[in-house]
Structures are given as structure tokens and as C-alpha cells.
């Protein structure tokens, strides 16, 4: 039976993805990392979400800065707390005494059929791989929300999770562990609308109302920052391949991470040329990733709404 480790930086769409994963998959544990907000906030938010959902899943606090640069954040989108609008009570539960990378290492060595869902900067995952190279043969697949086959959001070329720690992303994509990647080219094509936010706010379930409050804040930011009339639920697209595999189509290709480009640092360079080995100035490298190219957005949103409303 496949079990899953969940690495996140909650974060509004992380919260949605975590609640869907916890309801539909067998989660071994959660690790937090800097990203949407600082590590203190993302760890508190993860604990608060699980407590509000009455889920007893262990949480390990991960790394608070990238391997090379200084930490960035996305508080312009997620607010000062990282989960503005949720108004969840401060959690009573505490994180484990071990770090996020240590939890990943221990879990990989204990579980015989482990996959990792990574919906944040890849610092914890990369650190675990560097500290314990043996886990490369233990982790069956890493499902990453990150990157893009086209445009970025943090910069014109780079998506936030990759841009936040390009060196970590390069380690993960070149680790030899099979990668499943969903990028902005797919995750920005659909999202939660104001009607769905209002529906969540009117739900009898306390958790759904809290997440509705969070998504109300997040949607307003999408409207003001990106002039979008829906709130992309980026991270659940890294969960859906395991709960509803027919909803997202992937293509195998080589992906690497640009770490030195002045304009392109943090870009996922996806080889979509479909060349035979003999052609091309730069012959294609062997595929290392199944990359999302199309999704049934309406069905994914239905999955999100039904799951959130199934919580008490
Ligand atoms: O670019 C979108 C990604 O960055 C999502 O994971 C979101 O939560 C933020 O971390
Ligand atoms: Ca995230």
C-alpha cells in the first residue's frame, strides 16, 4: 500500500492540498519549509490546519532558508500570517523534535512503498537527499508542484517554488528519483471562483467555513495582483495524480533547472522537442520527469469542494 509524505509551505493552496491528501491518501507525515511565509508561520499553519481537521498526522519543522540565497516569501499573496483569512485557533500541538529533512530520511528508510508530495521550495527534499543518498533508491516518486513549461510567476521565467531555491530544485530533478511535475502552465488554467468561496462560507462545516475565509482573502489577492477571477489551487494538482489519475495528463520529458541565468534563474527547462536522439544541436537527454500538460480543471475543483465540505 503506497504511503505519502507531504512537504509544504502553507499557504492557502497548500492548506487545500493537505486537506485533500489527508482525506484521500495514507499520509505518513508532514514537513514544513519556508516559502509562502517564514518557517515559523508555515509550521504553525500546518499544525493549525491538521488540528482544525482533527487529524493526528505528525509535523516536522523544516528549513527556514534556501541552500544559497536569502529566503524570499509570498506574503503579498498569502498575507503576513501565510494563511490570512482562515482565522484558525493557534495550535496546541507541537512539531516533532526532529527536522523536516530528518523525518523524510527516517520515513524513506522505514517505508517500502513511499511517494513524496512536494508543494513548496524543495530545500527539505534536497537536504534529505544530500544527507542520506541511500533514500534515492527508497522513494518511488516525488510529485512536485513547481516550475512551468511556459511562463513563471515569481519572475517572467521562474515559478515561485523553484525560484525560491533553484539549487535545491536542481538536486531533486537530477537525483535519479522519478519526478512527476505540475507547473503553472496547467495550474493557472482554473481555480476557485467567488461563487465557490461563498458556498464554502455558507457550509455547515466549521473547517470548510474557515478555508472559505482563507480562500476569500486569497481570491481577492488574485484579483488585485493578477487580475484573475479565480484562485488557482496549484498544490492540489500534485495530489490529484494519486487520487484521480485521469484528471491530469502528463508527458515524459527531460527537465533541468537553470541556476545561473541573469534573467532565467529558477526556470525549469523542459525539453518538449520530441526529437530522436540523432537530431538537434543539443541531443535530448533521457526523460527524468512526467510533466503535466493538460488538466480537467472543473473536475479538480469539484474534488476540492466535495472534500472540503466533507470535513465536520
Ligand atoms: O507558484 C505556486 C506555488 O508557490 C504554490 O505552491 C504556492 O503555494 C506557492 O508556494
Ligand atoms: Ca505551496
Radius of gyration: 18 Å
Helical content (DSSP H or I, runs of 4+): 25-40%
Q: Write down the secondary-structure element order.
A: EHEHEHHEHEHHEHHHHEEEEH
Q: Total number of β-strand segments?
A: 10
Uncertain ranges: none
Number of helices: 12
Mean pLDDT: 97
Shape: globular
Largest beta sheet, briefly?
Answer: 8 strands, mixed
Structural class: alpha/beta
Distance between the termini: 27 Å
Bound molecules: alpha-D-ribofuranose, calcium ion
Strand portion, in percent? 15-25%
Q: If you had to describe this structure to a student in words, what would you say it looks like?
A:
By secondary structure, this protein is of the alpha/beta class. About 35% of the residues lie in helices and about 15% in strands. It has helices at about 10-25, 40-50, 75-80, 100-110, 125-130, 160-165, 165-175, 185, 195-200, 205-225, 240-245, 295-310; strands spanning about 5-10, 25-30, 60, 115-120, 140-145, 180, 250-255, 255, 270, 290-295. An eight-stranded mixed beta sheet has the order 3-2-1-4-5-6-10-7, with helices on both faces. The chain has a two-stranded antiparallel ribbon with strand order 8-9. The structure holds alpha-D-ribofuranose and calcium ion (CA).
Please supply descriptive tags for the structure shown above.
312 residues, alpha/beta, eight-stranded mixed beta sheet, two-stranded antiparallel sheet, binds alpha-D-ribofuranose, binds calcium ion
Question: Could you provide a short overview of the structure?
Answer:
With 312 residues, the protein is α/β, with parallel strands linked by helices.
Amino acid at each position: 500500500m503506497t504511503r505519502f509524505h507531504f512537504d509544504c509551505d502553507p499557504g492557502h493552496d497548500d492548506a487545500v492540498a493537505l486537506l485533500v491528501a489527508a482525506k484521500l491518501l495514507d499520509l505518513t507525515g508532514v514537513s514544513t519549509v519556508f516559502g509562502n511565509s517564514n518557517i515559523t508561520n508555515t509550521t504553525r499553519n500546518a499544525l493549525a490546519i491538521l488540528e482544525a481537521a482533527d487529524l493526528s498526522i505528525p509535523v516536522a519543522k523544516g528549513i527556514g532558508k534556501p541552500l544559497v540565497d536569502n529566503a524570499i516569501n509570498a506574503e503579498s499573496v498569502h498575507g503576513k500570517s501565510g494563511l490570512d483569512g482562515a482565522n484558525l485557533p493557534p495550535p496546541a500541538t507541537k512539531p516533532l523534535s526532529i527536522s523536516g529533512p530528518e523525518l523524510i530520511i527516517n520515513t524513506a528508510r522505514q517505508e517500502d512503498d513511499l511517494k513524496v508530495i512536494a508543494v513548496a521550495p524543495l530545500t527539505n527534499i534536497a537536504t534529505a537527499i544530500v544527507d542520506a543518498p541511500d533514500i534515492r533508491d527508497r522513494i518511488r516518486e516525488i510529485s512536485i508542484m513547481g516550475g512551468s513549461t511556459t511562463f513563471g510567476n515569481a519572475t517572467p521565467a521562474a515559478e515561485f517554488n523553484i525560484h525560491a531555491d533553484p539549487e535545491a530544485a536542481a538536486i531533486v530533478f537530477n537525483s535519479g528519483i522519478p519526478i512527476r511535475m505540475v507547473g503553472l502552465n496547467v495550474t493557472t488554467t482554473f481555480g476557485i471562483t467567488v461563487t465557490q468561496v461563498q458556498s464554502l462560507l455558507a457550509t455547515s462545516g466549521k473547517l470548510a467555513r474557515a478555508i472559505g475565509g482563507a480562500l476569500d482573502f486569497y481570491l481577492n489577492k488574485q484579483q488585485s495582483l493578477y487580475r484573475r477571477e479565480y484562485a488557482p489551487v496549484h498544490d492540489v494538482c500534485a495530489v490529484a495524480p494519486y487520487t484521480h489519475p485521469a484528471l491530469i495528463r502528463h508527458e515524459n520529458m527531460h527537465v533541468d533547472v537553470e541556476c545561473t541565468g541573469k534573467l532565467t534563474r529558477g526556470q525549469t527547462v523542459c525539453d518538449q522537442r520530441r526529437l530522436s536522439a540523432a537530431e538537434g544541436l543539443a541531443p535530448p537527454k533521457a526523460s527524468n520527469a512526467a510533466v503535466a500538460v493538460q488538466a480537467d480543471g472543473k473536475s479538480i475543483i469539484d474534488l476540492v469542494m466535495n472534500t472540503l465540505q466533507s470535513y465536520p
